[in-house]
Each structure stands twice: as C-alpha cells, then as structure tokens.
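Dear Dr. H.,

I hope your travels went smoothly. While you were away I took the liberty of generating a structure for the chain from your last submission, since the lab meeting agenda had it listed for discussion. I wanted you to have the full record in hand beforehand rather than looking at slides cold. The sequence, exactly as received, is reproduced here:
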Amino acid sequence: MATSVRARPDGSPPPAAPPASPGPRGRRSPGGRRSRLYRWDIKAIPYVFVAPFFLTFAAFGLFPLIYTGWLSLHRVELGGDPTWKGLENYTDLATSEFFWNALFNTFTIGVIATVPQLLMALGLAHLLNYKLRGRGFFRVAILAPYATSIAAATLVFAQLFNTDYGMINGVLGWIGIDPVNWESSKWPAQIAISVIVTWRWTGYNALIYLAAMQAVPQDLYEAASLDGASRWRQFISVTIPSIRPTILFTIIVSTIGATQLFGEPMLFGGSVGISGGSGNQFQTLSLLMYEKGWVTGALGQASAIAWVMLLLLLLVGGVQALVSRHNRKKLGG
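The corresponding predicted structure, in token form, is as follows:
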C-alpha cells in the first residue's frame, strides 16, 4: 500500500526523506579499521624491534658459521677454487701432532690461568663485601686491568718476563734463583701467559662475585654469627653455597675465554708468536687456526679447527647444563 505524502500548508514541497542506512554488511566503520591496525601494530611491532638483532646475527654470525662449516669439508687455498674433501680435514687433524699439541697447550694454559684467577677473585670479592675504608676506590681499581688494552698489557709483561733484562729474572736473581728462559721454555712460557690472563680478568670476575655476594640475605650471616661461626666459616658455609650458580657461570665463561686465547700468546711470542714460540710450546688452537688459514693458506683446515673449537664449547655448555640441572634437583629434593 503506497503512502501518500502531503504538501506543506504554504505549498512548499515536502522535505526529502533521509537516505536509508546501509545494512550491517555495507556499513564502513572507521573504528573497525583502526582496530585492525591496532591489532596488526601489537603483533608486528615487537618483531620490528628485534629484527635488527636477528639480521645482524644472520649476517655476521649464522652465515659465517655455515660457510665455515662448508669450507671445512673442502680443500680451499687462498685464491683457488674449493675441492670437495668430505671429512678428510677432520681426519687429518686427528693424526696431526700440531693439533694435539695446540689442544694440550690450550687446556694447560686455561687451567693455569683460570684456577688461580677465580680463587683470587673470590678472595677479593669477599674482602670488598665488608665495610672497608675506600672500598669504592678499590672496586674501581680492580677493574682497571680489564679496561687495559690486551696489546699494552702483553707488551708490558713481555718486558717484565724478558730473559736478559726483565724485572722478574732480576728479582729471582736476588733470592739466588738462576734466570728463567720465559720465552723458549714450555712451562715458563705458559706460566707467563697465564699471569697476563690472570692479571687482566681477576678484577672483572671479582666484581661479578661481589654483586652475587651482596644479593645474599643478611639473615643468613646473622644466624651463622649467632651460632658462633667465624668469618671464614661464614664464607665457606654461607657465601660459597649461595653464589654457587655465579661461580659455575664464571668457570664456564673463563673456560670459553681460555679456548679462544689468541692475543696474549701471539704478542708475547713476538716474531714467532703466531707459531706459539720456536717449538710451538705455547701455541693454542686459535693460533693454529690463524696459522693454517693466513700463513699457510689452508682455509679448509683452518675452518675444520674452528668447528672443532665450536664443538668443544658446545661440550662445555652441555656440561654446564647437566651440572645446573643436578644442582636444581639437589636443592629441590
């Protein structure tokens, strides 16, 4: 039935009817578009923020790692085309006396440098944890060696350990000990390099231990003091168990650093530093890798050494994970 539209009394035409509003399907809401943009923003922006890290890691970490693994399966000379060798580079390392010598040197220097370093760092952190006059100055002072350049520190220690005019041999001569050939003898050279590493990293580890010690609840020390425990007993029974995860962390980090030891032995040896001395007496895996790659030009063998070092570090990380899991189960039980 049609609806009649009446004219106004003055004869003017009736007002036009408002357009019919579109149904739900034809409605365009600005709020809906903003809502979709907001949801996209919430989901995508975090990935945009972390993208620079992953792009940098892919370019300077992941790609070199994969490419080095590919090179380790080939015979590659500087300026030449790669030739497939499979696992031959790794089997050559297994029968190479230079590789086993470098591996043994890396292990011994790491032990000689890491054990005294961490023990002294624990002692320094324990002293600085108490109220001492000028402890702020001492905290800054023990970090100064870490801020020193590796080259500068190694060159200074190379002069101190010089066989002919070094101060170390001079002090040994005053107490009746014959001069030691620090550069040419195996164990004296490794001890000298370990002293450089210990001097440089002790303060750094001490500050890490100090931060962990300051997080230990004071109630534990007060309870131990009421039980009559001395400071030494508090250190052994309260401090050490409380900072055990931190100690494990520093052991792992120091082990990784010892595996990658390069600058100190190379600069200490001078003209024969790349080969680890005249008789390879302190050549580490990093030095052997550098010598194979850039002195003899065998990039395939150098890449194989790099991957062996990576596998060693993964092994160290696996041991850390097992020890941490064992400690958590022990504490939970």
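Two observations you may find useful: The first strand starts at residue 74 and ends at 75. The first helix runs from residue 30 to 71.

With kind regards,
E. W.
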